[in-house]
Amino acid sequence: MKIRYFRYLIFSITLSVFLGSCDKTTTEPNPQPVVLVSAALVHDYTKEQFLASLGSQASDYALFIRGGVKQYKIIYKTKNTDGTEIQASGALVVPVISNLTTPLPLASYQHGTIFSDNDAPSYYDSAGEGTIASVLATFGYIVAAPDYIGYGSTNKLPHTYEHREGLATASLDLLRAVKEFIKQENIKWNNNVYLGGYSEGGFATLALQKKIEEEAPTEFNLKASSCGAGAYNKTLSFKTLASVDSDGDPTHNASYIWVLLTYDSIYKLNRAMSSYFIEPYASQIQKDKQNARITVSFNKIISDAIKQGLANGSDAALINAVKDNDIFDWKPKTPTMLTHGTADTYVPYFNTQTAYDAMVKRGATNVKLNTVNNGTHSSSVEKYLLDTITFFATNQ
């Protein structure tokens, strides 16, 4: 997700949010790290140096950068989807803003779909996700940004693309490592945590929120969660893609293929590509995996057996794998905003509408449906960001 930022009003909004966020910092003694393996300072930028590092993108961000940043690469312990302990990586950005002495909140930024390892946050490439995390930090956040499994220090492993547990576990364990580092370095943190992400990051954010609320409710003080354009309703998404014409965008198709390949592997379906796709696409996908670029409607490359199995429920193994990644039907405890454009042909709007409806039906009163009328997947990003800043400001 590449972002072209905001408007002048953000400065005043973020200033009022974070100068007013003065909860007490922890006075607990520093424990020995449990999850944190190492933290390496990658760059220590002044405001001017940070702007210079952005190159041609500097003009996009210049109005919104309030100070310098310290960029760290965090290595931490987590578990892969098979339960194996691994050492994953992520970015941690600490703002250096003159005259700002109050403790700051921690924001966890879950990035969207990337096809290049170089775009992962911890590399801090000028065109990558680390830049987005760093710009957000200059607004007055301590920002954690997981690379996820499959990028950074785990780039030899398959990425857990759109896998609920894989994304949530990697993101939660980074937060744990960051919490340890903050205590170790006596960084001024007000103990509040905000979650945000768009596209795959929206899905990862909602999965992370659900995991924290259900499995680690006392570890973090979640204040708000802003999820943009995620494919939360995987069951309906799969059935729709298999039966209804899609836009045929090759990058969109690559994402859909990637999800199917990921579930085939993680859930040990271990099927031949010819069982999922017709020729000549099956051979192309067998060769190029998610890097295949196919320009026809996705339902035109799916095999009849898959279409029928999804439609009539006979393909129980695949249906159960997909269903295991549904995160739309539960009751959040944290104030949650779900943003989506109604003209999104990549991740259909029904993902957010069905999530909102299901949450309200379960009695949730703190979930906000933020609809972008006629917004596409890309054109809705700016409103998502603007509204996220406002939403966080109202949930201090």
List keywords for this structure.
396 residues, alpha/beta, Rossmann fold, 2 domains
Explain the overall architecture.
The protein is an alpha/beta fold and 396 residues long. The chain has two domains: 9-232 and 328-393, Alpha/Beta hydrolase fold, catalytic domain (Rossmann fold); 234-323, no CATH class. It contains 14 helices and nine strands.
Count of DSSP helices?
14
Principal-axes geometry comes out as globular
Mean pLDDT, to the nearest integer, reads 92
In the CATH scheme, the class of the largest domain would be: Alpha Beta
Topology:
Elements: H1 9-19, E1 36-45, H2 47-53, H3 58-61, E2 68-79, E3 85-96, E4 104-110, H4 129-137, E5 142-146, H5 164-185, E6 189-198, H6 200-215, E7 221-228, H7 234-243, H8 250-266, H9 273-276, H10 281-288, H11 304-312, H12 316-323, E8 336-341, H13 350-361, E9 367-372, H14 381-393
Parallel strand pairs: 4-5, 4-6, 6-7, 7-8, 8-9
Antiparallel strand pairs: 1-2, 2-3, 3-5
TL;DR of this structure?
This protein has 396 residues and is an alpha/beta fold. It is 38% helix and 19% strand.
